[in-house]
## 1
Amino acid sequence: MKPLLSFLMASVMAAIVVNNLSDSTGLRYTAELMKMSTVPDDTPLKARAITDPRYHRLAYGVIVMLEVITAALCALGGLLLLKNDRRGVTMTRAGLGTGLILFIGVFRGMGQWFLSWRGQFNGLQDTSQLALMMLAILGVAR
């Protein structure tokens, strides 16, 4: 069960990486979020907006890098678990931990900072689902 769950999460994350590298939608989403383009102008918090495209690309690059690391560590963990190597648990946990840092720390944190919940760029439901899946797998991967 543990190797399968580790491989499944690696597959989900690899698909996300491929999608993000094949399509500019994620970068556009990140840019619009950071520009706070859909947040009403009447809030003083709109001063947080970052409009420089270099920072949008940097943030997006960090996001994709964390997705790659998550996928790679989960895949390596699954391979080691198939060989009954207990280091597989450590690798899987590291991958899921990286994913949780991404989904809770970066996505939820960025979403809060840039007020995504007030605008149309709101990925909170997807983020929550992936974080819950990772937490559930962590519970199994002991």
## 2
Amino acid sequence: ASLRPTPSPLLVAGQLSESARRGERLFNDPAVGCALCHGGSAYTDLKMHDVGTVGRYDHPTNRFDTPTLVEVWRTAPYLHDGRARTLGEVLMDFNEGDRHGTTSRLTPQELQDLAAYVLSL
């Protein structure tokens, strides 16, 4: 509880950029669903989920813990096995069936805005 996260270098004068503010609305939109698992002050529900990212070396029934998104800007690569180099890849390339948030209907700009928000946490 005594640890304080380092502010994201993507903040503008300590505040969310315009893009990140748009992304925050998407993040909290129940139709997108990010905040369902990445909610609260730690941005995690501390639960295990099957988000469709089981790899060839994983057990087919593996489920993965919901990581915190605090300081996610410094923790690339992403996913349990590091296969996603960017958050864009998490949202677009490794989200088969929208099991890791409903992102397939988002526009390229909305995906950028969503990534900008998450990278600002």
